[in-house]
Automatic annotation (TrEMBL), chains A, B, C:
Belongs to the UPF0126 family. The keyword RNA-binding does not apply. It comes from the Bacteria. Pfam families: Gly_transporter. PANTHER family: INNER MEMBRANE PROTEIN, UPF0126 INNER MEMBRANE PROTEIN YADS-RELATED. It is a multi-pass membrane protein. It comes from Flaviramulus basaltis. This is Uncharacterized membrane protein YeiH. It is found in: Cell membrane. Keywords: Cell membrane, Membrane, Transmembrane, Transmembrane helix. The keyword Cell wall biogenesis/degradation does not apply. The chain crosses the membrane at residues 6-22, 29-49, 61-77, 89-106, 112-135, 147-165, 171-190.
Amino acid sequence: MFYTIDILGTIAFAISGVLVAFNKKMDLFGILIIAFVTAVGGGTLRDLLIGDTPVSWMRDITYTYVILTSAVFAIIFRSKINYLRTSLFLFDTIGIGLYTLVGIEKGINAELHPIICIALGTMTASFGGVIRDILCNEIPVIFRKEIYATACILGGITYFLLNELPIKTNIVFVIAGIVVIATRLLAVKFKIALPNIYKE
Amino acid sequence: MFYTIDILGTIAFAISGVLVAFNKKMDLFGILIIAFVTAVGGGTLRDLLIGDTPVSWMRDITYTYVILTSAVFAIIFRSKINYLRTSLFLFDTIGIGLYTLVGIEKGINAELHPIICIALGTMTASFGGVIRDILCNEIPVIFRKEIYATACILGGITYFLLNELPIKTNIVFVIAGIVVIATRLLAVKFKIALPNIYKE
Amino acid sequence: MFYTIDILGTIAFAISGVLVAFNKKMDLFGILIIAFVTAVGGGTLRDLLIGDTPVSWMRDITYTYVILTSAVFAIIFRSKINYLRTSLFLFDTIGIGLYTLVGIEKGINAELHPIICIALGTMTASFGGVIRDILCNEIPVIFRKEIYATACILGGITYFLLNELPIKTNIVFVIAGIVVIATRLLAVKFKIALPNIYKE
């Protein structure tokens, strides 16, 4: 179940990488690399920071297959990809929900402070996009708009608050994931952004 | 004592991150991230390279609190921050002095060559600013001007030279730190830069 | 023998870094850093991802000496460096051949999947140039043109295919290296590029 969601998230992230690389007129190899780092970049940073090496995607070849297949698919059907935009957005949102929780769990296993665990979860979910933007020579989109990381952080806080209550870990896990997903969906639907601090 | 200086340095680095992120019109989340990476980026790279994981700031939550508090403070009082410019410059300079020595000491503990230790010290002191500039899509300022890294390197050389003499380690430590700080202060005061190699 | 080639590759990579940094009008320190990361960046990423720390160049000071000497040499004789362009291209090409194989071998020793080993080899050979371009605020050249990574990948595939046959490992090693070098030389000579996917 978790694994399926993880794969869906990986697909969505990989395809989002392909789309950005297209806009930058990268060649085939560049596109594959951007797809790859978008999908695994966050988890890689997390594994490096906590010292869990070789990093995850090196130990499970499935990710590589999924990413390459998704990227090739996105390249071939690139003129049709707009029809999938809503599905991709959903996959992506579900992906960040799950990635956040994977990061938090890894932090807990490494016996880190809850705040650090939430940071790890947020990184897992968002850093792939940051690397994608750096490699494409853009200021990372996550630093300029969108309730993205905020959704991960809220989900992480939910996780640790509910964990204090007598609720089963599995259920806490699901609720926290739903908080991430719902926050993002609502923010996008109602165009909610972080408060603008430049004009007052 | 060292810990206090470390915290002062962290504050100065975090605030310098906030100021750069402001100029790039980043949102609240982007500003916090830039503050964070500016403050801990150098130490994180050092820890990753020598394999000392989880990296330092993950093991001591104090840094997170200090950085977040400094950043929020800088955001709220941003119109007043100019009055603090001299204090911040001093904190920053003291910070690089200390960060350099922390990096060198970690290198020695990992039994690395003195040159590598000096490189680690310089990285600890300067790499946070490099990541800050990359994330803001600028050529890192350290590569274009300012006696910054040079000060770290001179301090590092001083450390290893004095260590050959019969002087107590603590005193060597203090003198090397003073060399870093004095070099930077004098360079800024007298506008000393590296020799220009482009026009001759 | 391998060590000599490794050093030649390091020299070529370091000088290529100096030339790029020149174009960006970096100061002396910036130039040295770019030379350094171009030469050791790929191996550093590889070592971090598989958890082999402290990373290679920290354990063998020779690399540091070679890189600094090459960089100083390139800075002093920068007006003459054009005469060496062909030699440098050859060193660089031989360098990526060897770096690819070093990466693959490290992956095998870490018991990783052949595809991951090939990825490690390609990274070792190409990532230094990627970091160089990111630090210089360019979209990495490897993502936009040139059969560079493709040569590494072909060499990697050759290695694993031949390893199935009853051929001595040393000979497989040499043949795979020749495939990398020949692919790159032929691609540059005949201006072969990856298929353009933008105009059809």
